[in-house]
Amino acid sequence: MYTVLRFLHLFSAFAFFTIHGATAAAMFALKRERDAKRVEGWLIIRDFATKWMGIPLAILFISGIVMGFMGRWWNQTWIWLAIGVFLAISFAMSGFGRPYHDRLWHAIDPQGHAPPTKKEKRRSSPATTEEIVGLLAKGRPMLLTVIGVVGLGVILWLMMFKPF
Amino acid sequence: MYELLRFLHVLSAMAYFLFHGAVSSVTFAIRREPGSKRIEALSEVMTLAYIGAPIAGVVLVLTGILMGFLGHWWGDRWLWISLGLLLTIGVLMNRLGKAYMTEGFTRARNPIAQTGPHARRGISGGVRAFFFHPMFFTVMGLIGLATVLWLMMFKPL
């Protein structure tokens, strides 16, 4: 049973990264875009991937929790550290990534997409090219990549070597 | 040493799937993005993914080969079956996927081709519709990945 769960855990992790790859590619490419139609194309790809990412993530998380009970690891430091790092990565990713994409969507299609925060006013017309370029420049794909890769490395190391 | 290689093997596999995911999303998106500037964005996703995927793929294969020697597994059948599966999926994905992408991009960039017939000489419509569908690539990839992972983790043969 434990090995089956470990299999599911790894399989869902691979599925998650496969889907997440699309959003990462979109984040890098958006930084160089200057054309509203192409920006929209990237945002569609990103939304498409984000929609499906939740399924493998849920399996990954549930199988991890069950394995924690089966292996009696909940009183060990490494598992809590791994969950902490995972949560920190998730907050960083959504903190930097989601508002960036939501702002872009609202700038391009103000009727179809609400502003990312309640404090921001709803636009009445699409943003100008200059405004879109300004918003695109605020993307931090390399920062998110470094956070993601280092975080993944740390989590994987904690899970595989169980040092504490 | 073995544990370190296993760590690198899993990490590079995750990196590989991250890059490969970008390509997978394009196979789906290309069906819904005809004749606009969006198609150029899709084309660039492919270029970005093809830069990183081979690097991760090489680390994945090299660490796998080394672990095969360290674990004395080259005489076991599970290793050869998983290698065979990996090669088969790789060749199928490459041959069919490349043809699907080339045709998809050509049709998307050419408005006349979008209204033309789908059938290509020598391949009937039904068979073509089955093999030239992103869901076919997805299912093939998922079944292949699950089988290879099962063989590596359970070492049944």
Notes on the protein architecture:
The complex is a heterodimer of chains A (164) and B (157). Chain A has 5 helices and no strands. Chain A has one domain. In chain A, helix 3 (77-108) packs antiparallel against helix 5 (141-161). Helix content of chain A is 76%, strand content 0%. Chain A has helices at 2-30, 36-70, 77-108, 129-136, 141-161. Chain A has 164 residues and is mainly α. By secondary structure, chain B is mainly α. Chain B has one domain. Chain B is built from 6 helices and no strands. Chain B has helices at residues 2-29, 38-70, 77-109, 111-115, 125-131, 134-154. Chain B starts with a helix and ends with a helix. In chain B, 26% of the residues are buried. The A-B interface holds A 3, 6-7, 10-11, 13-15, 17-22, 24-26, 28-29, 33, 35, 37-38, 40-42, 44-45, 48-49, 149, 152-153, 156-157, 160-161 and B 3, 6-7, 10-11, 13-15, 17-26, 28-29, 33, 36-42, 44-45, 48-49, 142, 145-146, 149-150, 153-154.
SSE order and pairing:
The complex is a heterodimer of chains A (164) and B (157).
Chain A: H1 2-30, H2 36-70, H3 77-108, H4 129-136, H5 141-161
Helix pairs in contact in A: 1-2, 2-3, 3-4, 3-5
Chain B: H1 2-29, H2 38-70, H3 77-109, H4 111-115, H5 125-131, H6 134-154
Helix pairs in contact in B: 1-2, 3-6
